[in-house]
């Protein structure tokens, strides 16, 4: 299976900087508690927070969903250590697919009584959503391809690719 480039490195860098600016503008002077969704959002998060001007606190949440290309059951396997009570939280995720995983993370963060919650995803895949929920910030809309690279994996491989690549369905 060959990987084709969907979003090259320079485009990623440009858009991530723009997103950081949009986020800085929206949050004004307040500090932001970033809750990054492991493991897929790590690379995106590392780039994004370096361009957000606000004071940043960083923590992680883990939700497991995919088994290879098949969708498994959703389970939160790690919670943030920081106290989120009264915080302005920004959830950062890699990809918005059916939406169930981000919605689940949102609901979990909500239980910890933050002041506000916003969410940011790098990719929004054009598939039918199963939730009535949309992220506040979106990097790119992408077609329904299986994506790897820049944090995203296929069976734990390819997370280190510096670009977003894809396998066309059926290949
Ligand atoms: N690639 C990797 N992980 C994913 C994808 C994808 O296309 N969609 C949801 N999780
Ligand atoms: Mg993931």
From TrEMBL:
Annotated Pfam families: Pribosyltran
One CC-aspect GO term: cytosol
Highest taxon of source: Bacteria
Pathway in which the depicted protein is active: Purine metabolism; IMP biosynthesis via salvage pathway; IMP from hypoxanthine: step 1/1
Protein's name according to its UniProt entry: Hypoxanthine phosphoribosyltransferase
Family: Belongs to the purine/pyrimidine phosphoribosyltransferase family.
Major site of localization recorded for this protein: cytoplasm
Compartments, record wording: Cytoplasm
